[in-house]
């Protein structure tokens, strides 16, 4: 028997059973879930489990009043790891019925890591999009990791050391606030350069990560400083011995010092010391990308010597007219939200 359970209703024994399961850890502890919960009281978290209490599909969804139902989206936070296609198909069927009943316009899949075409998702009615990322293996020796860097990268890392750039793990909320200010500046620069569909995460979202994930060692904020100047930063989420680059920020001040290069090198060596199995650089533009900004991002991430991997995201439209209205309304609503949220 397969059933849907609200996260807040999950018993301690079930949480303990799932505590070592990567999907549940990411779903239950990640900043994504916390952000959505804090953003709207209409957002609820669920998991689909079978009769053996195996986790099939974790998801969150908005359940707005009927007049705003076009805003309803169910987001599957992490892909199911179980390979029993029959159970997975039943789980997706239950999810679809649940979302139709709740007037959800679209079901989105955050990431499905498979090195082959996700035929299973297509059979479930998902429109599938291919994505790229670079993943570094921190279990290699430090020398191997160093030699895997592009020579320009090694040069800038050494230069940052000569320029007295220091890397630290932020402990105080004031440091997180400083980072958020630089992060917003970074996003705004990217938008002015033509970055489409970009918007900065709010300070409330960062506060949720700081309050709930940082004490549990599931979030780490690294800062690159020279004296009193904050030159770069990176917010790293981790679960199941895997590290993930969530957000980053850089200053135009002293940009030639190589602070961002040193920052990520220190994160790689930190991940190695923690015994992590991977460091995901958080997605990258395609090799054929022609946009100068995106090409620069790809080049920066590639130069750290990681292996390029492919993952898939997808959408399953349940209400075509509601989905069209959602696409038309969302840009204006995002701008309104960004103006009204207190930073």
Give keywords.
single chain; 343 residues; alpha+beta; Aminopeptidase; globular
CATH fold call of the largest domain: Aminopeptidase
Can you give the mean pLDDT?
A: 78
* Major sheet: arrangement of strands: 1-2-3-4-5-12-6-11-10-9-8-7
**Largest sheet at a glance?**
12 strands, mixed
Helix content: 40-55%
Which consecutive residue ranges, at least 5 long each, have pLDDT under 50?
A: 20-39, 79-83
- The CATH C-level name of the largest domain is Alpha Beta
* Rg from alpha-carbon coordinates: 21 Å
How does the helix and strand content classify structurally? alpha+beta
* SSE order, one letter for each helix or strand: EHHHEEEHEHEHHEHHEEEHEHEH
Estimate the strand proportion. Answer: 25-35%
How does CATH name the architecture of the largest domain?
A: 3-Layer(aba) Sandwich
* Shape, principal axes of CA atoms: globular
Q: Could you state the CATH homologous superfamily of the largest domain?
A: Gcn5-related N-acetyltransferase (GNAT)
Continuous helix count: 12
Number of separate domains: 2
Task: Give the arrangement of secondary structure elements.
Layout: E1 3-6, H1 12-18, H2 22-29, H3 31-39, E2 43-49, E3 55-62, E4 73-76, H4 85-101, E5 106-112, H5 119-123, E6 127-136, H6 142-148, H7 151-162, E7 166-169, H8 173-192, H9 203-213, E8 219-226, E9 229-239, E10 242-250, H10 259-273, E11 278-280, H11 292-302, E12 307-317, H12 320-340
Parallel strand pairs: 4-5, 10-11
Antiparallel strand pairs: 1-2, 2-3, 3-4, 5-12, 6-11, 6-12, 7-8, 8-9, 9-10
């Amino acid at each position: 028997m397969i059933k849907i359970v609200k996260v807040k209703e999950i018993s301690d024994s079930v949480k303990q059973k799932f505590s070592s399961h990567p999907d549940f850890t990411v779903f239950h502890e990640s900043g994504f879930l916390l952000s959505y919960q804090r953003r709207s009281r209409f957002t609820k978290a669920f998991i689909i489990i079978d009769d053996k209490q195996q986790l099939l599909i974790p998801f969150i969804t908005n359940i707005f009043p009927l007049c705003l139902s076009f805003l309803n989206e169910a987001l599957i936070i992490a892909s199911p790891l179980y390979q029993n296609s029959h159970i997975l198909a039943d789980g997706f069927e239950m999810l679809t019925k649940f979302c139709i009943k709740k007037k959800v316009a679209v079901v989105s899949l955050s990431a499905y890591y498979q090195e082959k075409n996700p035929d299973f998702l297509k059979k479930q009615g998902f429109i599938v999009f291919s994505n790229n990322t670079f993943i570094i293996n921190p279990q290699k020796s430090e020398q191997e990791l160093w030699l895997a860097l592009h020579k320009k990268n090694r040069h800038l890392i050494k230069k940052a050391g000569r320029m007295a750039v220091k890397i630290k793990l932020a402990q105080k909320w004031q440091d997180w606030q400083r980072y958020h200010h630089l992060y917003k500046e970074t996003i705004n620069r990217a938008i002015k350069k033509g970055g489409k569909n970009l918007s900065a995460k709010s300070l409330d979202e960062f506060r949720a990560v700081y309050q709930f994930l940082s004490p549990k060692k599931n979030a780490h904020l690294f800062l690159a400083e020279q004296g009193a100047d904050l030159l770069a930063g990176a917010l790293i989420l981790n679960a199941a011995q895997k590290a993930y680059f969530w957000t980053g920020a850089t200053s135009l001040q002293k940009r030639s010092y190589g602070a961002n290069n040193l920052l990520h090198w220190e994160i790689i060596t930190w991940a190695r010391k923690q015994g992590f199995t991977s460091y995901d650089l958080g997605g990258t533009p395609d090799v054929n990308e022609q946009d100068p900004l995106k090409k620069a991002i790809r080049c920066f991430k590639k130069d750290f010597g990681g292996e390029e991997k492919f993952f898939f995201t997808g959408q399953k439209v349940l209400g075509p007219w509601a989905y069209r209205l959602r696409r038309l309304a969302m840009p204006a609503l995002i701008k309104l939200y960004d103006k009204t949220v207190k930073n």
